[in-house]
Queue: 2 jobs
Job 1
Amino acid sequence: MHRERGTWSPSQATLSKAQTVLSATEASGDLYRNGLGMIASENIVSPMVQKIVSSDLHGRYAEGLPGKRYYQGCDDFDTIESLGIQLAKKVFNTPFANIQSTSGTVSNIGALKALAKPGDKITAVSTADGGHISHARMGAVGLRDLNLSTYPWNEERMEPDIDGACALIRELEPRVALVGQSVFLFPTPLREIADAAHEVGASVMYDGAHVLGLIAGGCFQDPLREGADLMTGSSHKTFPGPQGGFLLSSSEDPVFQRKLNTSIFPGVCSSYHLHHVAGKVVALAEFEEYGTAYAHDIVKNGQAFASALAAEGFDVLAESRGYTASHQVLTRHGDTDSGAGAKAARLLEDAGIITNMNMLPGDTKALTPSGLRLGVQELTRVGMGTLEMQEVAKLYARVLLHSEDPSVVKQDVSLLKSDFQTIRYCFNEENINGYPF
Ligand SMILES: *Cc1c(COP(=O)(O)O)cnc(C)c1O
């Protein structure tokens, strides 16, 4: 027997708002399905992860840790999170992993809560040199009320000036020496920085948000064995999982480990988005199987794409170091502060190539930078290789160097992309049209 229900029919006005969202969501999906997603912080998730992130777990809570919950109904999620912690320790080769954080920024806020007190000193890369906003006064560093000093920068090598950074740490004796960037072409010279930091009693925090997949795949650097006490990161950039974060540590000390766990819950999260955590666990299992190959292919493609752009006539940064050792490539499109990067990004979008403008060394304004930051991790994920990198570089040249009509180039972008619709490096590799809607 069903209980009598009142009839409910929505007004066209309210329904049309929801329909607007649905059709804009579909249009956004089409943009990436038919175009080239080249924003260095983005990725697409596997079909199995897609399924899990839209599961019933979305509506549930599991405060605490596996086996120590405040609510009932968590036994199945305990199975998921316990497996995830175990897999994260294995994939990142580390004795401690917390997989609850809802983003890289949340991981950073939690880490800074565990490592420092208000008023403490911290050293980091400046945002102008590629540091993340969460490393700045306007972000997590400011939220914790830390006293920030930034490292001198070596523009030629696109990394902290190593002697200057070590001298700064020895002079200031900060509580935390933070390294890692959002513009991240080359591994950080970590051992030297960690030695200086440990000498003065500072903790070393490595923000691997962008390069976590490359690190876990053994293709970038190994921060937790090069002196970092803590590594934070996003689970959705080169690590190809759903949006979220990781907090990882080389410490075996149970007191410190407990501090790290409580810095996430109850420190900065109540619900920690169980559907995304479960998706992360599947992504970790997929990474265990395919991650090394994926990371290797990303770096190979990054280098191939950079060389191909240079061969087309673009000004690609860090030529003397082989352009890149990560998924990122930086290009300069005009004079410092000219806004040429913004203009290039708009033209590329008109051609179906999605990128972001980026400040380059010398630029002082975030809205009129001279460069682009490009990432190859998503194109790699759908099976593009070094030959396609050359094709993509040619499409860039047609739009930006030969002034071809972007709407004409867009047809060729879409044609190229039509052959790359299957998400790879995941369990059901036979998936066709695996792009989310
Ligand atoms: C992207 C990024 C973050 C933040 O990650 P979210 O998951 O977007 O919050 C933190 N640090 C660095 C260096 C990043 O590039």
Note: Residues 290-417 form a domain with the Aspartate Aminotransferase, domain 1 fold (CATH 3.90.1150.10).
Job 2
Amino acid sequence: MRVNFNRVAAVATALAVWASAATGAVATHTYSKWMASSIMSRHQGIMTGAGSSSEALQSGFTQKAFTALVAQYPNATDVQQYIETSVAAAAPFLSNATYDAMAYPMDRLSNGNALLTLPSANSTASNRAAAKALHQSIMLNHRNIDGGLWYFTYPQWSYLDGMYSLAPFWTLYSTNAVSRSSNSTAELDDMLFQLDLIWQHTYNSSTGLLVHGYDASLTAVWANPITGASPHVWGRSLGWYAMALVDTLELLPSSPCKYKQDVLNKFQTLMPAIIDAVDQQTGGWWQILDEPGKEGNYIESSGSAMFAYALLKGVRLGYLAGGLASNASEVATRAQGYLTDTFVVKETNGTLSYNGTVSVCSLNSTASYEYYVGQPIQYNSVLGSAAYVLASLEVEKLSA
Ligand SMILES: *[C@@H]1O[C@H](CO)[C@@H](O)[C@H](O)[C@H]1NC(C)=O
Ligand SMILES: *[C@@H]1O[C@H](CO)[C@@H](O)[C@H](O)[C@H]1NC(C)=O
Ligand SMILES: *[C@@H]1O[C@H](CO)[C@@H](O)[C@H](O)[C@H]1NC(C)=O
Ligand SMILES: *[C@@H]1O[C@H](CO)[C@@H](O)[C@H](O)[C@H]1NC(C)=O
Ligand SMILES: *[C@@H]1O[C@H](CO)[C@@H](O)[C@H](O)[C@H]1NC(C)=O
Ligand SMILES: *[C@@H]1O[C@H](CO)[C@@H](O)[C@H](O)[C@H]1NC(C)=O
Ligand SMILES: *[C@@H]1O[C@H](CO)[C@@H](O)[C@H](O)[C@H]1NC(C)=O
Ligand SMILES: *[C@@H]1O[C@H](CO)[C@@H](O)[C@H](O)[C@H]1NC(C)=O
Ligand SMILES: *[C@@H]1O[C@H](CO)[C@@H](O)[C@H](O)[C@H]1NC(C)=O
């Protein structure tokens, strides 16, 4: 393969030149595809039932990142095949709504989009049943006293995290020709209500950012006495919410416009605050956004990739415009470059690893600053590496 070094240099943040020590051969890789093939070599994002309750999210998030990759690189047939394998593995775990609604956090719904959009050849009865059960599980999901969907088993608690899986799936299900029903308008209203309710409880007007979640009963040790809000802005949970907004916007019809307008208002309000919160020195975002530079805090690699993706996709689809769009592109492109330089590890066997991703942070804790910065860092968490695939795809699009 002939390598055009000028072009490689021009898009150095998106392309890597990797010389194999064994063969001396030089190959160019795009980081998105390289990281995706590395995720596949690690067999990540395939449910086995033996993992933690976050298995369903690992599976659904991998499917979403890979779906975006195949849309951008249609000849990546191995990645398409992997999506199908991931969906086929997940479906049996998600086909009993009564059980799933409690056994998995709201994150389970992230598997629904690929279930609905697989090529018809793969739209098996099992896939259709799983999509239907996931939808039914929203209706069975517990609600708090304000009507907000619980994130998981914790009574009355809602997390930003769950919105990433809920809103795009519910929107697709309610608008898709095959699955929409006479109740779809009420369901879209409910979807908007959920995005709204959690915003109202978690928005901090002095930072413009959203905290991790809230307890509608106001009884948790960490709950704000008026709003029930938890105390801190956790990067990854805000990353899920930012991605929820931009991915939902992409799926919402333009008419009636109230849905799109409402979600757009949220996106355009939130993203400038996220740009403001970037660490000027590195270009990444802190694990705890509201305590920049405090001892123990660090630049976290999953939340940072999620913000870079949401910003660049928002610009690409015209949801951010003018000076805000140029700022967003600059900040996000720089962030992806920092992530590549800092957290992407080239293994001697030719795979890429991804470092610096915090493990799960739960509100079933003190939710204190010390708790969040004390959670372990994971090597090759797919919640980080799949977010990096999404961010890299957007950067690669800029130079395509
Ligand atoms: C896929 O397409 C790209 C160009 O878009 C090309 O460089 C690459 O070689 C193709 N890969 C395969 C496996 O055909
Ligand atoms: C769903 O799971 C529950 C709990 O395990 C079980 O009681 C019920 O029979 C299952 N329903 C179906 C339709 O399989
Ligand atoms: C999806 O469909 C294609 C084409 O029919 C087939 O080759 C592939 O094996 C199917 N994948 C799964 C997981 O069933
Ligand atoms: C229609 O959707 C609304 C909003 O989610 C829900 O409250 C209601 O139960 C649904 N009705 C039916 C018949 O499913
Ligand atoms: C909002 O954020 C600021 C800055 O982090 C903090 O001082 C303030 O206590 C927060 N407000 C509430 C209601 O939590
Ligand atoms: C873009 O960033 C510059 C420098 O930080 C700032 O002065 C300007 O207000 C920003 N523009 C918008 C539209 O946010
Ligand atoms: C490549 O090397 C890394 C680091 O040693 C290892 O974790 C991974 O499993 C290896 N992958 C394969 C496909 O051998
Ligand atoms: C991964 O990051 C940790 C610090 O968070 C560091 O100690 C470790 O050396 C890194 N691993 C690699 C392979 O870079
Ligand atoms: C919540 O945390 C407590 C204390 O760590 C633990 O015993 C309990 O099992 C947790 N609850 C759930 C549902 O994970």
Note: The pocket of 2-acetamido-2-deoxy-beta-D-glucopyranose (ligand 5) is lined by residues 204, 206-207, 224, 290 (CB under 6 Å).
